[in-house]
Amino acid sequence: MAKLYINKDIVADKDKMENWYLTGDEGLSFPDIQYFLSWLDPADPKIDIEIHSCGGDTVEGYAIYDALRASGKEISCTVVGRCASMATIILLSAPLERRKAYPHAKFLIHKPYLARYDDLLDLETIESIKSSLEAEKDKMMAVYVERTGVESTILEVQMNKEAWFGGEVAKQLGFISDVLIPTTAKGTDYKLNSEKMNKEKQVTVKQSIIDRLLAKCGYQKIEDIPVVSMELTDAEGNTLTVEREEGEPQVGDAASPDGEHVMPDGKTIIVTDGVIAEIKDPEEANGDEEIEALKARIEELEEENAALKTNARTVEDNKILNAVKMAGGENWLAKHCSTYRVSLRTQSFKNTVETQASAEETPIQRKLREEREKRTKK
């Protein structure tokens, strides 16, 4: 099997030197493909093409597309990086069942445009350029419709966006049939049943042939028209696919995979059973945690308040304590209440204070004190 790498911009042969001078890459031209085809082994029936190109010259691109289809070889194309503009035409040189892409491949289709025009333009020239670009667009759209099997109205929506899209959208638009799973990947997500995959692939190919025959007869099943989707990247770098052509995702939009997806703008998109069930704003998303924290704090304060109420004195308690203090305190209680006794600790403290006070008295002070005590006893 021969290997062909389309990994440069598509340029005319005469422009290679200028392209090399401006970008450092001379580009790929139709004569390069002719040279490649001329060296193929006639006994080798297959050509495996890897595409990583942003496209380029339309004349060269269509020439390469026609040459590959006319080669008589079994063409297979795999997008390994970018596939834009005329590179998407070259991709379509392979039949749908042999058009693949790796998970991180990106695609871009857009309306034809004139890269530069150095001469002065008059009205007639402008009209001529307009007609030429419209004809180029119709030509490109005819190839897209034929090789993808998708209606021009759907393709034109994506074409007018002029925005990159991933492998899943490329499948829906008919540019590829499958997103390849890396052969070196490990884990349950990649342990697929090969026999089941082969059967599904055969069914897909047969169904594709039947659909094409029906389309030739003027029939088309509306439910088979692919839905244009957006591929969004969440804050963790994972892909969230939303079936919506443009605008902000809304509740009720079909989306995958299920789960909570925190987006870079802080919003949280919740997908349940393949449908967006709820979209939370950043404040709303954090509100649940804040509410739970506030509830926990309220419970703590209530417990502290209950403890304080248990140990708090009542108004009546304070009245009694004030009355005792004004009457003479504990000594008065001990003297007039037969059931009250001063605690050992309190009494010990008072004795100690009295002993210290006695030790500090002068002889005269001590004599006077003794006299007062005698008079008190009498």
What does this protein structure show overall?
The protein is α/β, with parallel strands linked by helices and 378 residues long. It has 13 helices and twelve strands. The chain has helices spanning 16-23, 30-38, 58-69, 86-91, 123-148, 152-161, 167-172, 194-216, 282-311, 315-327, 329-336, 344-359, 363-377; strands spanning 2-6, 46-53, 74-84, 99-101, 106-108, 178-179, 230-233, 239-242, 255-256, 259-262, 268-272, 275-280. The strands form three sheets. Strands 1, 2, 3, 4, 5 and 6 form a six-stranded parallel β-sheet that branches. It has a three-stranded antiparallel β-sheet with strand order 7-8-9, with no helix packed on it. A three-stranded antiparallel β-sheet has the order 10-11-12. Helix 2 runs parallel beside helix 3 and helix 10 (315-327) crosses helix 11. The protein is rod-shaped and about 140 Å long. The N and C termini lie far apart (134 Å).
